[in-house]
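1st attempt posting a full record on here, be nice pls
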Amino acid sequence: MASQVRTARGFIDYSLDKRATLLNLFKGVVDACDADPYLMRAAKYHGEKAGRNCPVCKKDRLVEIRYIFGDQLGQFSGRIKTPEELIELEKEFGEFAVYIVEVCRDCSWNHLCTSFLLGDGRVRKPPRRQRTLEDEDFSGNLGS
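the predicted structure (as tokens):
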């Protein structure tokens, strides 16, 4: 993934942590198949096939979700983006973090896979806040 974008830096691979978590899971020490309902919903509607089977249940229902966070993103921080959208965003923002989470849609396994920074390095102010459906009140009128 990081090789498709030009400005990736600060790359962290969480494979060793994943391995330790899986060992503890199989020993019965932890329960790592506990994905939050919101994460499961995100996996259902926004997850992209990971190309590998779930390390817990071995089924082909493992997906990856890419979350972005950063002060320069303004209200867009915390959103899910596709790899193609990341390529566009790295040209528009100075710096933001990308977190790739794997989720099994069958057994609810979830784990942070990688994180890295993207952006062209130029400091910018967050974009102006845009009205969204969340800004509407119950009467259908836009709130103040």
